Amino acid sequence: MTEKKNLYKRLWNVLNLIEDDALSGYRKTHPPLTMNTVPQKRTIQEDRNKALAACAGEIAGCMKCHLHFSRKTAVPGDGVIDPLLMIVGEGPGEEEDRTGRPFVGRAGKYLDKWLAAIGLSRASHCFIGNIVKCRPPHNRDPREEEISSCLPYLEKQIALLRPRAILCVGRIAAQILSERPGTSIGAIRGKQYGYRGIPLFATYHPSAVLRDQSLRQPVWDDLKRLKAFLDGLARPEKGG
To answer: What is the distance between the alpha carbons of residues 218 and 225, in angstroms, rounded to a whole number?
Structure first.
């Protein structure tokens, strides 16, 4: 019986390695094998999916601040469960307000190139969201009362998604999640922080770099720092 249990454990570990490699290429922590492991794991995943969908539904119907008067569509955010990286911006722009999806305009396409440069993609590794879920008129900075009304949604998403790291793009997101109000993005970037136990990095917003090409090198430095951290996470061991 002991030999049979050991065989099951080895098979369980192999299946987890295959799953991790297929989904992200990074090793994750998995629960030990028990008689109830597989159904329990499936139930937890289903519960998290339902909770995220419920949160998105709340956001879609939210009227907690004045932004709901001018929005076309709320933008809850989207991406994978258990993301390697969660990207947090300031708020939706015109194209995002129209489609209901985050970072799909010119800045979003540029962000996709950033991710590709460090071996990531939004389809496989990321969840992307914003501090506020509705577009501020004329893309102005979100106001304090708008942020305070919307931030609990983001906090709930982070708790459910459990990303391995967070990347803030732009001053507003970096100030709020690093808890450095009034600090410039230039002073925040270049370091590693923590948000409720999750490693946090910050860099300039893609739209800022599109306007000012001199910011490309600092962003690349930040992305390399992020990549070095992600590469340092435990990976599946390869047999010799």
So the answer is: 11
Helix (H, G, I), strand (E, B) or coil at 29: coil
Burial call 108-125: b when 16+ CB within 10 Å, e when fewer = bebbbebbeebebebeeb
3-state secondary structure of 21: helix
Could you tell me which residues are beta bridge partners of residue 88? 129, 168
CA 19, 77, 58, 100: dihedral to nearest 10 degrees? -130
Q: Taking the model in full, what pTM does it have?
A: 0.81
Would you tell me how many other CB atoms lie within 10 Å of the CB of residue 225? 16
**Tens digits of pLDDT across the chain (240 residues):** 566 556 556 655 655 655 555 445 555 555 565 555 555 556 878 899 999 999 999 999 999 999 999 999 999 999 999 999 999 999 999 999 999 999 999 999 999 999 999 999 999 999 999 999 999 999 999 999 999 999 999 999 999 999 999 999 999 999 999 999 999 999 999 999 999 999 999 999 999 999 999 999 999 999 999 999 999 985 554 443
Tell me the residue type at 143.
R
- As a whole number of angstroms, the distance between CA 214 and CA 218 comes to 8
Give dist(CA 188, CA 206) in Å, integer. 16
DSSP E strand stretches across the chain: 78-79, 85-89, 126-130, 165-169, 193-195, 198-203
